Queue: 2 jobs
Job 1
Amino acid sequence: MTRSEENYLKIIFHLGGSNSTPITTNAIAEQMETKPSSVTDMAKKLAEKGLVNYKKYQGVSLTDQGTKTALSIIRKHRLWEVFLVKKLDFSWDEVHEVAEQLEHIKSEKLIDKIDELLEFPKFDPHGDPIPSKDGKFMVRDKQLLSEVAIGDKGVCVGVKDSSAPFLKFLDKNKIALGHTIQVLEKEDFDQSLHIAMEGRELRISHQIASNLYVKKNE
Amino acid sequence: MTRSEENYLKIIFHLGGSNSTPITTNAIAEQMETKPSSVTDMAKKLAEKGLVNYKKYQGVSLTDQGTKTALSIIRKHRLWEVFLVKKLDFSWDEVHEVAEQLEHIKSEKLIDKIDELLEFPKFDPHGDPIPSKDGKFMVRDKQLLSEVAIGDKGVCVGVKDSSAPFLKFLDKNKIALGHTIQVLEKEDFDQSLHIAMEGRELRISHQIASNLYVKKNE
DNA sequence: AATTAAATTTAGACAAAACTAAAAATAGGT
DNA sequence: ACCTATTTTTAGTTTTGTCTAAATTTAATT
Ligand SMILES: [Mn+2]
Ligand SMILES: [Mn+2]
Ligand SMILES: [Mn+2]
Ligand SMILES: [Mn+2]
């Protein structure tokens, strides 16, 4: 498995290409920051290796083997992110870039030992689940803050957009995973929310609310 | 800097190509497990970038910039080796292969934090010195056990051959860095040594003795 | 000094992963 | 059903790092 092949599999998985849902050439090209013609070439190569299903003009989906491989890369990526935050004091907006490199290190023992050192975390710093060695992971029932009804409370458990600018914005406004949020009011005009959190009240835009996941309290 | 360029610089350094000592094409090819013609190609490219001095048929040596780069790769390699041993319980014969990959991860912050986590170690698990950020490192006055005079004592501080088979042999015979060794007798016939170490006596071949570094006691 | 052996470089080719430009297939709108 | 816009594929290049085979230079030996 080359680094490039691994990145393609990971991206196809993230675009939903597991469960034999076909993903378009253009969608993959956009995520890979490459050209559609390059995606076609790689689709053929991965199909040759039995990692994806590919029929001309019909898009690409992962085989079981391809899904398994994608999950093992994602497992490594997220474990390294946890490592960087918990053991090396990186902030959650700095880890993704480095994890993009570390995820390609080939050593089963290494990642198992990292997992052990971190005491087998189930979620990464952005709230995304960490697949186990055999490719299983928790699906947390969560919803976007923008879809929570007025008056309801929830715990912030993840971000949808994990870009550095968004994460830095959250830091600046002291919004962090684990905080409890109550929706006080929704502004009809611009969909902004008035929320209560950790003993203070603040107003956040729809754009922010639709990139924050909360787990509703029972 | 590509991974391949980094590996070439590291190998030229290890062959003594710092201090403007020219290293032959063949020697580099052998270490890189590649063909001499490939080395010539790379020599041109590295010369183009100002990392090596290269004149046709005259061998290759590192420039100051090339030496600096080589030392930063070696620094990363050795720090990762310490990390693997101290934090993840790898044995000293398992770390080299993984460090060969980790040494190419590009993040200044990452390696500085690893350095800090390890409390700024000065030597790697094989007794090799770890260069500082500015490329300085300790030169320990050590000598091969095979060159120690009869009756003299020394502390085992490093290995010359750090291949897995040799390291495993040392483990099996409970020879480890930090142990004090006294040479009791040298066998004229096969140059084997009779030594005392940690309260027991044993006989070791010349081949072993000439791959173990000791620091003589004053 | 001439010959031979060894080391090194050149020339041409290849695989991986990307690109551009052109051709082909699909999907939408009338 | 036809035309058009979009998507996708093909064909032909490029770059990086390698290779083989042939040519050249250097070193060693007579
Ligand atoms: Mn990647
Ligand atoms: Mn993440
Ligand atoms: Mn390397
Ligand atoms: Mn070492």
Job 2
Amino acid sequence: MPQASGETPVVHIVDDDDSQRFGLDSLLRSVGLAARTYGSTQEFLKADRLDGPGCIVLDVRLPGTSGLDFQEELATLGIRLPVVLMTGHGDIPMSVRAMKAGAVDFLPKPFREQDMIDAVTAAINRDRLQRANENQAIAIVDRHATLSPREREVMALVTAGKMNKQIAAELGLSEVTVKIHRGAAMRKMGARSLADLVRMADALKDRAR
Amino acid sequence: MPQASGETPVVHIVDDDDSQRFGLDSLLRSVGLAARTYGSTQEFLKADRLDGPGCIVLDVRLPGTSGLDFQEELATLGIRLPVVLMTGHGDIPMSVRAMKAGAVDFLPKPFREQDMIDAVTAAINRDRLQRANENQAIAIVDRHATLSPREREVMALVTAGKMNKQIAAELGLSEVTVKIHRGAAMRKMGARSLADLVRMADALKDRAR
DNA sequence: GATCACATCACACGTTGGTATGAGGTGTGG
DNA sequence: CCACACCTCATACCAACGTGTGATGTGATC
């Protein structure tokens, strides 16, 4: 495993104001956090390692896309890093919109250094939890992808609580065949009990929401 | 069933300013919503029917407890009605705090009437969803409460994926006894399959969070 | 002291689940 | 054309599950 969970979280700072950016950078580094800075959203998107653990500190007022719009765009792009927003000219509706969109915090400038540190820490913690859940889910999805169509079908009915006999009737199969698919599904999914398989099936449904 | 899901949602308006309160009341009634008004948090808490469907519209500046503190107090009191906050003298940190605490919306005064209607509608929808989930969960908890200690114990191990034989060894019982408790648990919980029981067990764990 | 819920177990029986052996068919890709 | 994955099934066997009968013992409640 090259970079499992031991990877250091990175704080991505997106702000077009150079001095603000550098100030934030040194603040976060002073408390032992790894930071990267970007002068625009475009620059940020061109960077690699956006799939690693961490969070984003985003200025609302940016050239081109606003921070708020960009926050919503991130979801579309599949980037699920938690976002901390900051602004010098914000109002209440703006902060409410950001929080509704899932922001971890929304800090008006000037903010106290400790407030920013707390917000970033909370964001990184949220990311850690998200990531742990996501990793499990992905493992399950991957294994599920190795199932043959029939195996998937049988697994669905098994985890819906039906008996082999019922499944056989429903699919127009003999009971033996159902048992074979059922066994294969258990093996491929790595389920050591029916309870296991049921929970995996539920996890799959959640991801499909 | 006297008042199942067909009950009309009620908007509870808590504001110490008489004219504001009455204005809101008539606004909401004009769009066909049932509203009740309270001049203080105390008055609100003395009211009955707080367990019915609906939401709360809460002014931040109130005599005694502030709207924000009261919002957090509601959770302690077991009142889970969604909250819409409003204020004439708010700032960003205040709105962020409210949203973090789970507020549906935070409206600075003066607000557009449509914004309030939208917020209240969203709050009522959230309540409807919450309530549907909660009702199912409560039914499961109630049934689980009718289990004997042994039955609960066996149910936990069964839904953990263990075999009767293993459970028997773990609890120092014979396999027959385990089967009896298992059967009783299935019957009392109303589970028609093991998959059912597993999901109920998971729902119980979620409620215990 | 009778009643009742709870808990325990032996024995027996039938059902359901899981796997192996052996065998046949289809379709795809090298 | 052959290998391979997939899908199908019969037969057989063993393990696990579920239930019923009958019995014993405890503690709480009335």
